Amino acid sequence: MQAQQISLTKYLWFPINREGWPFVGLFALGALLLGQVWGPLGWVGALLTCWCAWFFRDPDRVTPTRDGLVISPADGVVQMVGMVAPPPELEMGDEPRMRISVFMSVFSVHINRCPVDGAIVKCSYRPGKFLDASLDKASADNERMSVRMSRADGREIAFVQIAGLVARRIKCDLKEGQQVRAGQRFGLIRFGSRVDVYLPDGVAPLVSLGQSIIAGETVLADLDSAEGARQGEIR
């Protein structure tokens, strides 16, 4: 019974990221105004206010801390896995690297987290279009924030926040030269989007296409493992 109560509390109460409070306030004000016009509209506005608060939820995560693990920076579904050159603005060369793309729907937690411990080498914002983030060409054409970071052993990882069809704001709090830890919150993308992760040469992904993953918890890859790429199937 106690375990059930804890589980229920987890879903009924959740912290809201500070970026979301202005939106929650606007939705609540709208609900009050609609209620003055017609009572049932006020209830609709109240439901929308609850949805807005839920969208900006910011739960704590339990991050694996073993050295060498690459942790997912985003909640969502693994949309693409393959060899692709990193964004040119990161100056990491033209050689393809293993890229894992995580698609975030409007129902995902949208707080992004750092994938590994290390130092931020370069941050580069690039304006662009707002195509459906699930499309491969969104990596090149859409608005994005690209980040290059270096681990203590010199190996580099890149990750890219990509705006989507209805996403209109990318927020990234990282600064060049900053030291970060795996699982550390660093920003968000509002209302549906995608995050790409570029692994070092020779590192295989440990997630499969279609897999649901959790920011700050799911292991995308192990830099110190010789295990090959994992395969998955729907069961």
The chain-level structural class is alpha+beta
Share of residues in helices: 10-25%
**What's the main sheet like?**
8 strands, antiparallel
Provide the succession of SSEs: HHHEEEEEHEEEEEEEE
Number of helices: 4
Average of pLDDT: 88
**Roughly how many Å is the radius of gyration?**
19 Å
Low-confidence stretches: 1-9
> Could you give the order of strands across the largest sheet?
9-5-6-7-11-3-2-12
Proportion of residues in β-strands: 25-35%
Describe what you observe in this structure:
This protein is 21% helix and 29% strand. It has helices at 2-12, 21-37, 39-55, 138-141; strands at residues 69-71, 76-84, 97-104, 111-113, 118-126, 144-150, 156-163, 170-172, 179-180, 185-189, 193-198, 212-213, 219-222. The strands form 3 sheets. Strands 9-5-6-7-11-3-2-12 form an 8-stranded antiparallel beta sheet, with no helix packed on it. A 3-stranded antiparallel beta sheet has the order 4-10-8, with no helix packed on it. A two-stranded antiparallel ribbon has the order 1-13. The two termini are 30 Å apart. 35% of the residues are buried.
Question: Main attributes?
Answer:
disordered N terminus; 4 helices; 8-stranded antiparallel sheet; 235 residues; alpha+beta; 3-stranded antiparallel sheet
Task: Provide a quick synopsis of the model.
This protein is of the alpha+beta class and 235 residues long.
List the helices and strands and how they pair.
Elements: H1 2-12, H2 21-37, H3 39-55, E1 69-71, E2 76-84, E3 97-104, E4 111-113, E5 118-126, H4 138-141, E6 144-150, E7 156-163, E8 170-172, E9 179-180, E10 185-189, E11 193-198, E12 212-213, E13 219-222
Antiparallel strand pairs: 1-13, 2-3, 2-12, 3-11, 4-10, 5-6, 5-9, 6-7, 7-11, 8-10
Helix pairs in contact: 2-3
